[in-house]
From TrEMBL:
SUPFAM superfamilies in UniProt: Sigma2 domain of RNA polymerase sigma factors, Sigma3 and sigma4 domains of RNA polymerase sigma factors
NCBIfam families assigned to the protein according to its UniProt record, in alphabetical order: Sig70_bacteroi1, sigma70-ECF
Record keywords: Sigma factor, Transcription, Transcription regulation
RNA polymerase sigma factor 70 region 4 type domain location: 114-165
InterPro entries xref list: RNA_pol_sigma-70-like (IPR039425), RNA_pol_sigma-70_dom (IPR014284), RNA_pol_sigma70_bacteroid (IPR014327), RNA_pol_sigma70_r2 (IPR007627), RNA_pol_sigma70_r4_t2 (IPR013249), RNA_pol_sigma_r2 (IPR013325), RNA_pol_sigma_r3/r4-like (IPR013324), WH-like_DNA-bd_sf (IPR036388)
Ranges where the RNA polymerase sigma-70 region domain occurs: 19-84
Family: Belongs to the sigma-70 factor family. ECF subfamily.
PANTHER family on file: RNA POLYMERASE ECF-TYPE SIGMA FACTO, RNA POLYMERASE SIGMA-70 FACTOR ECF SUBFAMILY
Pfam family, one: Sigma70_r2
Lineage: Bacteria, Pseudomonadati, Bacteroidota, Sphingobacteriia, Sphingobacteriales
Descriptive protein name: RNA polymerase sigma-70 factor
Top-rank taxon, per record: Bacteria
Length: 174
């Protein structure tokens, strides 16, 4: 948490320490999901740029890795959306940094609509907890207070939601 406070106070040395500590981990995280070195490099750099730009709104209640990996996920989604749109308007598949399976998933299955439909088909409580967490960015404690449940119950619902989405995505990526 001390790194967060220091970064919020414009401490470039603390930022450099976080960068040195997490750069390879973020890169590996994105590479594992996209199978593209280009996307992994791009997303990693954009994630740290976003961290610096949004340093004033970092939460001191969440660890730096949770916030950083959350940013990386969002940046990855943004980059993939932009690439999907670019492919759609180009009308052909030139050489791309993506694997064929990822391009196929984005182009032929409209991945975002599938995810949204899966979310809407979740049991009501699971869907509400998941949307408050992932779409509105509320903490587990905040969600627990809203529904008068324990933070562990919130974790359970989010875990089940993520598992459901991952299983479905895995099945369509094959």
């Amino acid at each position: 948490m001390e790194h967060i406070r220091a970064i919020k106070e414009d401490d470039q040395r603390a930022f450099q320490q976080v960068y040195a500590c997490y750069h390879a981990r973020i890169y590996g995280f994105i590479l594992q999901r996209t199978k593209s070195e280009y996307v992994a490099e791009e997303v990693t750099q954009l994630t740290f740029i976003k961290l610096w730009k949004q340093r004033g709104i970092l939460s001191e209640q969440l660890s730096i890795d949770v916030q950083l990996f959350g940013m990386a996920r969002q940046v990855m989604i943004d980059v993939l959306r932009k690439e999907a749109t670019r492919f759609k308007y180009e009308g052909e598949f030139a050489e791309t940094p993506f694997t064929n399976s990822l391009i196929d998933a984005i182009e032929s299955k409209d991945l975002l609509q599938i995810l949204e439909r899966d979310i809407q088909n979740m049991p009501k409580m699971r869907r509400l907890v998941f949307e408050l967490s992932r779409k509105q960015g509320l903490s587990h404690k905040e969600i627990a207070n809203i529904f008068s449940i324990s933070p562990k119950a919130v974790e359970y619902h989010i875990g089940k939601a993520l598992l459901q989405l991952k299983q479905h995505l895995y099945s369509i990526m094959l």
